[in-house]
Fold these 2 entries.
Entry 1:
Amino acid sequence: MSQELQKAPVIRKAVLFPLLLIPMFLGGMDTTLFNSIAYDLPVLTDSWRLWFIDGYSIALASSVVLGSRLGARIGPGVTLSAGLFVFAIAGASPALLDSPLSWTVARFVQGFGYALMVSSVASVIGGLPQTRERTLAYSLWIAAGSIGAGAGPLLGRIAIDFNAISLLFWTPAAAALTCGVSAWLLLQKIHLGHASSTNLDVTSSVLAFLGFGLLIAGLQSHVGILLRVLAAALGCGLLALFWQRQRRSQDPLIDVGMLSYSRLGICALAIVFGYACYTGSIYLFSANSHSLWSILPVSIMALWVSFGGFAFSKLHTRFTPVRLLQLSLGLCAAGLVLAAFVGLWVAAVLIGLGVGAASAAGDSYLLGSVSPKDVARAAAVQETSFAVGAALGVAGFGGIFAGTNSVVVTALTTALIVAVIAWTFRYNRGVITA
């Protein structure tokens, strides 16, 4: 058994895998659950519903790497338990609260809990001693998250139809609490001997949190245009400070040097905009969905994401990396256009396939284009890109929809943005491989 798991008790995979994958199911479900029913939650109004959804992703994006450093310092088993406890308490809090501010604060806290969960699960899976076990665990991880994301809109609509909104808070919290107790009892002795760093760099984490939060505020807020511009400008300024701090650091949270456009920036962009299409589409197309039947294509779209990842495994030998990334985002853009003029059933297939292929391609090329010693830093870029995309999708789609009050205009505008990003990939001159 590998050094990472030598100090851990022997745990059967039939026990270990559920402890890792149930949290990923819960997190995947939570990513889409409230996107799809935000307009049916009476506590939330105007921009509060956007903040309630995006608070989760903002906290995740700004603290997922911090979570991995905590896991390296105190052990991923302890970090996973702590993340599950935070996720459970914060997730249940809205059932006892009745103001949009308190709901939104709870979502920020829950997003931090999910960041601890994601980083811990990744660390434990990465520490499995056999390649076959790691491959199986990663595949099951993706499947668990996708199934959870697909179940989110369906469960949300069922709860709304049966006037059982409180169950959406209590049930996942109970499952997370049960997993947290089990993880504490079984996994707390796992330590990662291969961890590259335990540096927390809280200052950089705070800069990322405030900068990204203010940028999102500029995109989605319902206040006057001047305040939105000021918020976005201040957010960009704080993110610039974060960027410079990371460039000068000998042990950065995010290796921003990897993000040059000629190197791995194109992979990160594909993940960000691909996943933004996913979360943004769920929010947008749920705005006019008021029945189980009308929300069904939104749920099915989440399942098509898994097929998109499978399609990448079959197509990556037939296309160059840049061409495949362009094709993936092109499918997302085409799906948004079809959603505007044809309907969501067909559009959901293209958007799901495009998102799945873009995510799988960006992930594979990002991790496959670096040396073994840089894989951990590339993984940090990957995880952060997914979280950034999740937040930008809701903020971008939601902000445009709030300004235009038109699903068609929002879909066409975002399709144009995604198409332009895909077109710029042709200027990439780097060498990327799977």
Note: The mean pLDDT is 84.
Entry 2:
Amino acid sequence: MAGRVAGTDFTGGLRADGLPAALSDPARLAAAKATGLLDTGPEEVFEDLASLAARITGSGRAFVTLVDAERSFWKACVGVDADALEDRQNPVEQSFCYFLVGLDGEPFIVDDAAADPRTEHHPSVGPMDIGAWAGYPLTDPDGRVLGSFCVITDTPRSWERADLMTLATLARSVSAEIHLRQSLSAARAAQQRSADLAHTLQAGLLPPQLRKVPGVEAAASYLPASNRPYSDIEVGGDFYDLFHTHGTNYAAVLGDVCGKGVQAAQVSSMVRYTVRADAGEVASPAELLDRLNTALLAQRAPRFLTAVYTAFHLTPSGLSGTIALAGHAPALIRRAGGSVEPLGTQGTLLGVMDTVHLTDVPFHLAPGDLLLLYTDGATEARSRPGTALKDARAIFGEADLASALAASHTMDATETITHLTGILDAHHSGWASDDTALLALRVPPPK
């Protein structure tokens, strides 16, 4: 269906007000809105292209215009004094831009606006001193007309072919810039969806809050690697959990799945649930980790992991437990007086070999003592890549972690975790080279 106005056939017919029906096309309006340019201030890239068009064609005025159903919005307007947003637009019926929309992407060229039958009665010819007008469409990747790139002279003129070719080229440049904006907007939206998914997956690896254990202070923290923030789908594989097993017994587990991403998250999730399912049946941490290794191999888990698991219970003199390490660094015990000692015998990592060698090591925490479990992000903190040698810091190793823990001996579990995360942050200046999980259990001293 076509509609005819003042000698011009418009694809799609006319609206009730006699203007092209294409102005109100929902897909076109959505595309114009998606540019993110409507009702925004001037930007250098669009002003420069409009200025170039005005200068090359000698027209004096040039516009980059976005057109919605009711108005033409001037993203750039060279040769017109219009600073406020409300001055950078006019009703669509007072703009030649609707011709471009109605012509479905064809250029609109007028040598003498007052004499051309298509524009001689147009309401803007006199008030806007339009002598000649030349415009090319701004389109989205699907060919929908978003607006126009046009130049205007005060007096009639015949447009040279070279001028029109230049104008067409510049219009394509403006469209390309708009496409880039739209692509970036779509990429940001996709990135946000990835961030939301990553955050959800990561949250699933960690308890929403630590289980309260009567007579024990517990605190934990998790910091993702700086090169893999939540805005990236590459979820980390570090995890921790604290839970009740049976009777007066509790357990804590902390681990690090090799690699990042959804597969690592899936393995971490499986590990947490497997450990919880078996913990009530197995008293020995070494035996539990052995069972976990069997489960990983049976399910052909795509990633291996290191883990530390401890089973414990309260006693009249504090907390007694047993710990086993599967390829994991020793835990640390901070005694009430400030001394720090490693705990555990490093065994075989999980998910690789049928037979693993794991050792149960008993321990006891007296009032004021604290047990720290951690992943290797806490002992491999380093400077951001590219840091000048004179500013780069040595790796924050196990001895540094032990020293930092000893310095916190007057602190409770929560204060200790806060202290350690602060020390690590200060060492790597806010850039974490790896995911870092910390879990502290402390028997509070008598009040």
Note: The chain is about 30% helix and 25% strand.
